[in-house]
Amino acid sequence: MRTLIKNIKELVQVERQPKLRVCGKDMAQMETIKNAYLIIEDDKFAAFGPMSELKEQNADTVIDATGRMVLPSFCDSHTHLVYAGSREIEYIDKIRGLSYEEIAKRGGGILNSAKRVQEASEEQLYEDAMKRLEQMISFGTGAVEIKSGYGMTTEAEMKMLRVIRRLKETSPLTIKATLLGAHGIPMEYRGRQEAFVDLVINEMIPQAAAEGLADYIDVFTDQGFFTVEDTDRMLDAGAKYGLRAKIHANELAYSGGIQCAVRHNALSCDHLEYTGDAEIEALLGSETMPTVLPGAAFFLNMVHAPVRKMMDAGLPVAMASDCNPGSSPSCNMQLILSFACVNYRMLPEEAINATTINSGYAMGVSDMLGSIAVGKKANFYITTPIPTYEYLPYAYGENKVSRTFLNGKEV
Ligand code: NIG
Ligand code: FE
């Protein structure tokens, strides 16, 4: 099956020598080709270039993209997409001034979602998540990492992971699964948190590994949640089963989470509102992708991670949606692009790199996704007619995705 897309106004985020991630100053670089063609062979990109170099083609499908651009699909490397119900009522408490931590202390927040997930059937969780995946696809996402974490019991955590496995089997998206057994402390474990950590280590990790349900392991390492010592124990246990770490860190305080992530050679550490010189120093030279979640910072009205300072120091930055019912109830990566530019003063090129190749790295797929390169998986979208690619973050709230292709096929 051969598809030719011709007369592309601009082919964006092209790579001739693919890299796994882009760092520092290079984040402002992004190659594009104006008036371009793109050829897809089965599920992979086969060739691209300027229209002037297009030779005669035998294609099964020819698409004329006059006036439209083509971009690689977003990689959304941090989501809590499997959940039950919504939490808009609790959000009113936030508007009235209660903090995220105060709501959690009252049994709201993550525990509220946990109760609903425990009560929900696997079928219902699957159907709800599938609808969200369809919405994500329509906004231009082509790969997504999904965490458990609203289970709080071994049984419910395994239920969530089985739902993710079924999504992997049935959705055209590339999906990675993360065991987030340590997302919150159940009421019955308050005051004896180590016992809950033991449960994660002795039951959740071995069971998830035995059934091959998880690719990665996550911990909410932060003030009021899990300590660095708890995290060390759980990540060591996960590593024994081949689960690489991707942790929540420094969202609420300088909690030591970033240094902990680097020590464990985590694939990513995410949130990072509280990132200072010591944290930047720890990340430099590491293989851990600093990942910022602008949707959560926006929705919770938090301080912003010092993204410019991080890039100036030479670090890479990734961005993801954090899609979840409590702190970021949106899975729209186009909004993340706009937040990147508006709230973090990133250039459009930096924002596109953060949400494609670098977020692909943060979920371990940038060798096959996150840019348009020969041999990479053909996950991409064709935009509506737009004047420039800078228009993508600029026109916030408007869906600029018109047609989406995953694994070379239109969906
Ligand atoms: O990434 N920070 C921790 N966990 C989620 C929020 C989950 C929730 O509030 O339900 C996050 O923002
Ligand atoms: Fe999260």
Describe what you observe in this structure.
The longest helix has 18 residues, at 193-210. The chain starts with a strand and ends with a strand. Strands 1, 2, 3, 4, 5, 14, 15 and 16 form an eight-stranded mixed sheet that branches. Strands 6-7-8-9-10-11-12-13 form an eight-stranded parallel sheet. It is an alpha/beta fold and 411 residues long. Helices cover 35% and strands 23% of the residues. It contains 15 helices and 16 strands. It has helices at 88-95, 100-105, 110-119, 122-138, 154-170, 193-210, 228-240, 257-263, 277-283, 294-299, 307-312, 333-344, 348-355, 357-362, 391-394, and strands at 2-14, 31-41, 44-50, 61-64, 69-72, 74-79, 141-147, 174-182, 216-221, 244-249, 268-271, 289-292, 318-319, 380-383, 401-406, 409-410. It binds N-(iminomethyl)-L-glutamic acid and fe (iii) ion.
User: Would you count the extended β strands for me?
Assistant: 16
Distance between the termini: 15 Å
The number of helices is 15
| Low-confidence sequence ranges | none
Q: Categorize the overall geometry.
A: globular
Helix share bin: 25-40%
* Percent in strands: 15-25%
- Biggest pleated sheet: 8 strands, mixed
Rounded Rg? 21 Å
* Ligands and ions found: N-(iminomethyl)-L-glutamic acid, fe (iii) ion
Class per helix and strand makeup? alpha/beta
Average pLDDT reading: 97
Oligomeric organization of the protein chains: single chain
